[in-house]
Amino acid sequence: MSLDLTPDRNPDHPVAPQFPARWSPRSFTDRALTEAEVMSLLEAARWAPSASNHQPWRFIWALRGEAEFDAIRDSLTGINPVWAGKAGLLVVVASKDRVTNREGAEVANRTAGFDTGAAWMSLALQAQAMGLVSHAMGGFDGAKLAAAIGLPEGHTLHCVVAVGAQGPVADLPEELQAREKPNGRKPVVEIARHGRF
């Protein structure tokens, strides 16, 4: 979809085109992803910024056709399994809750979610650079997903990301077809203040 046809995706201030061009489609083709492609996505995430270089993000991934993919898909809720099950790759995004501080004590990592969000964005932008699309979902059964991936204690689940080649809108269930387009963003004046709230 051309961004020229969607005025709500035109930035108000100059930015690199990768930012407004990235969106979260739900329609995927049946194109399989290779393990080498997955490694490129994870390598991009690896280089995300991280407080004190703790790198708390954890990614558990599976390719379509693998039993692990099916287990992750089956933990999704609502209509998510219908469309996400057609992606070439599902990635569970989690984070390690605790870190060892400079004094050697185990403490809560208060920036774990923040850092993990940066890693997910790196993965999303790498997918886009590779001609793929990605869509993160919060609609999952936490207990079922934790069991499916063997989530260790002391970790938090954040989302499941579907990655693959973008498919046609007509391949989606009718109820999703109208939503299969890039959406806009709040203006900067709604999300940022100079100096104080």
From TrEMBL:
PANTHER family noted in UniProt: NAD(P)H NITROREDUCTASE YDGI-RELATED, NADH DEHYDROGENASE_NAD(P)H NITROREDUCTASE XCC3605-RELATED
Species this protein is from: Rhodobacter calidifons
Identification of the protein by name: Nitroreductase family protein
Pfam families: Nitroreductase (PF00881)
Keyword Oxidoreductase: yes
UniProt cross-references to Gene3D superfamilies, sorted A to Z: NADH Oxidase
Family indicated by similarity: Belongs to the nitroreductase family.
Domain Nitroreductase: 21-76, 83-164
Biased composition (Basic and acidic residues): 1-12
Keywords in alphabetical order: Oxidoreductase
Disordered, as annotated region: 1-21
InterPro entries: Nitroreductase, Nitroreductase-like
